[in-house]
Design brief:
heterodimer, A: 555 residues, mainly alpha, 72% helix, globular, disordered C terminus, B: 114 residues, 0% strand, elongated
């Protein structure tokens, strides 16, 4: 640990110091608003520190590549939205602890993004998990909430343990905890001790299983609906964004970058999980009446789309003519997070401390009683459904276009084409329940006017999310380019790069990524391929059909 | 050569680690008492810990790969501390679960479904 490493950690140190201050100060004053302001100031300070960092510095076990940068900015933005969303006072003590834990999860996500080492990554993941358990416990004080906290805790710890067990095999097979050395040991040029090669595969399966819990993918999804339903809107927003982002970062770091040579095995598993996840989530969401439960199934389905992008990235990362799945992954994650936080923030704003809005029916006639809130909610729902020109549309376009662009001369291509067809059908099914919420808001008679006492913070957060969704939808280029940078700097195995790197030596500097840097236009240029046109037409057609049928049903 | 007749080596530690891990998972799945589930968590984490220590031991590693430093042992220490932190949170959750349900039977928390 040198001074340079410490400088790289300044944003996280600022956040953790602020969290500790809030915890300690909370013993003397429980005023929620003051602590929210301090948290916001800490996030701003961390953003300044992140902005002023030198991105080319070498941090040893701290990566500072574009992927780390992207996810760190994502974490700060999501943190700001969540702090603003949760700025309403709780009914009982524990408000400072709530804000402090929120900051700790943000710091944890930033560390996960930067971790280039098994130990740091595991500790950072726990820095997300443990405050999340506390947040779930603090959110409400009724039996349902305690049940959901207990469920999330036990499954979360089991998932962490499975992940750790997988990490132990990764460490055992390669004899190192640094991803650069793990990659060097597994790239096929080093001869592992007899029997050790199987450990790497075992590690891949276990790590993927552990991460499936974090991102709520089938078959580790079943906690999500119960936990979301049993907690608050703010906690549900946190759960649907922060652990998911962390899970996908670790997947990208380990499955794509750290375990080379596994792609022929791993893409099939990821693809199967992706298709099952999106189908299950969408079908189950169709008959939910509880809003958070519905969005829980929606978040499971969205995980499926993101996993499809990951599978494309694994199967055809550098294949000529294929779209880049990893770019789609980061883009989709950001659009999904904005729309989901916006939906939960609107619900939070519409309720009040004594009575939350829980059911979809509570939104009846919102278009007449609270037109602004209804508009924000409608924007978020349309984006989640993937209606152009909102942000979610571009995400779905990149994901399905990527799946269709995999070369169909091999078997992989056919599987991906089939998966894309299933995905598009899924998007149509999903439109039914997203648009049902819109239909309830605009075509039903209002039962009662929602109190809208959720606080200015929640409303600001909701409006900011809606603006983000619209802004990204109109002008998606910068975010796509940022995603492209992430992929360019993620290490890849290259035939020419295999000959240096001693098997178990202490090698400080990883070899630089071998690809020619072609930043910039690559992602945006791709949108005009014929595939893109076809998929776009299919999407639009299916959605208009479902929209009209929904109108007929719900009128 | 059977695993029972050869001298104690890496594979024996891995087998014990795997048995601990599986016992822990079974314990978490079958125990109805919250504290029983917590014991399962400890078993699961320590199964992984045992793996780290065994893989990191320079005595146990295959020839040619001994010099890999103290990483395994360090991770084990980190995990022990994390397990303690998790146990603290778990006991708080168990206590409030008891306040809400008047029991520590996890099967009684069945209000959320659908």
């Amino acid at each position: 640990m040198t001074a340079a490493d410490l400088r790289l950690l300044v944003p996280e140190i600022v956040l953790i110091a602020a969290a500790v201050t809030i915890y300690l100060g909370g013993a003397f004053s429980t005023a929620r608003r003051a602590w929210s302001w301090i948290a916001a100031a800490a996030l701003l300070l961390a953003a300044v520190a992140l902005w002023s960092q030198n991105p080319s510095a070498d941090g040893g076990s701290l990566g500072c590549d574009a992927l780390a940068r992207y996810v760190q900015w994502f974490a700060l933005a999501a943190g700001a939205l969540l702090v603003s969303l949760a700025s309403r006072p709780l009914r009982f003590d524990g408000t400072p602890e709530y804000v402090g834990s929120l900051l700790l999860t943000v710091a944890g996500l930033m560390l996960v993004a930067a971790a280039e080492d098994i130990v740091l990554m595991f500790v950072a993941l726990e820095l997300i998990s443990i405050p999340t358990y506390v947040l779930l416990y603090l959110g409400r004080d009724d039996a349902e909430s305690q049940e959901s906290a207990a469920k999330y805790f036990f499954l979360g710890v089991l998932a962490s343990a499975i992940l750790l067990y997988g990490f132990s095999f990764l460490y055992g097979a390669t004899g190192s905890t640094a991803f650069s050395e793990i990659r060097a040991a597994l790239d096929g040029t080093t001869i592992l001790p007899p029997g050790f090669a199987v450990f790497a595969r075992l590690a891949m399966v276990l790590v993927f299983a552990g991460l499936c819990f974090k991102v709520a993918a089938v078959p580790f999804h079943f906690y999500a609906p119960d936990v979301y339903q049993g907690t608050t809107h703010a906690n549900a927003a946190l759960l649907s964004v922060v652990p998911k982002a962390a899970g996908f970062v670790v997947m990208a770091r380990i499955l794509v970058a750290a375990i080379p040579g596994m792609e022929p095995y791993s893409w099939g598993v990821v693809l199967a999980v992706a298709v099952l996840t999106m189908t299950f989530g969408n079908v189950m969401a169709l008959w939910q009446d509880d809003f958070r439960r519905l969005l829980a199934y929606s978040s499971i389905a969205q995980t499926g789309y993101i996993l499809l992008a990951l599978a494309v990235g694994l199967a055809a990362r550098d294949a000529p003519g294929a779209w880049n799945g990893i770019v789609a992954l980061w883009f989709y994650l950001a659009t999904y997070a904005a729309a989901t936080i916006g939906a939960f923030a609107t619900m939070e704003y519409l309720g009040r401390a004594e009575r939350r809005l829980d059911s979809v029916d509570d939104l009846a006639g919102l278009g007449r009683t609270r037109p602004a809130a209804a508009a924000v909610m409608a924007v978020c729902m349309f984006s989640l459904a993937g209606v152009p020109p909102l942000a979610g549309f571009w995400g779905k376009l990149l994901v399905f276009g990527g799946a269709l662009s995999v070369d169909t001369s091999g078997t992989a291509g056919w599987w991906f084409t089939a998966a894309a067809v299933v995905g598009v059908l899924n998007a149509a099914v999903a439109a039914a329940y997203y648009l049902r919420i819109v239909a309830v808001m605009y075509f039903r008679i209002p039962l009662a006017t929602p109190p809208a006492r959720g606080g200015r913070g929640a409303w600001m957060s909701a409006v900011a999310c809606a603006l983000l969704v619209v802004g990204i939808g109109i002008y998606p280029g910068p975010l796509m380019r940022a995603g492209n940078f992430c992929d360019q700097q993620l290490p890849r195995v290259d035939a020419g790069a295999k000959h240096h790197s001693p098997p178990f030596g202490r090698q400080k500097n990883p070899p630089p990524p071998q690809s020619a840097p072609q930043f910039g236009m690559a992602a945006t240029k791709k949108v005009s391929t014929p595939n893109a046109y076809h998929i776009r037409r299919t999407l639009v057609l299916s959605q208009t059909r479902v929209t009209t049928s929904c109108h007929i049903i719900f009128k | 050569m059977s695993i029972f007749t050869e001298p104690v080596g890496l594979s024996h530690f891995l087998v014990v680690g795997a048995v601990l891990f599986v016992c822990g998972v079974i314990c978490m799945a079958t125990k109805r008492n919250v504290l029983g589930v917590l014991m399962g968590i400890e078993l699961v984490l320590n199964g992984a810990n045992l793996n780290f220590v065994a893989f990191g031991s320079s005595v146990l590693r295959p020839p040619g790969t001994e010099g890999i430093g103290m990483d395994g042992q360090m991770i084990a220490l980190f995990v022990i501390v994390l397990a303690a932190a998790e146990a603290a949170v778990a006991l708080a959750i168990a206590l409030s679960y008891y306040h809400a349900h008047a029991t520590v039977d996890v099967d009684r928390g069945d209000e959320l479904r659908g």
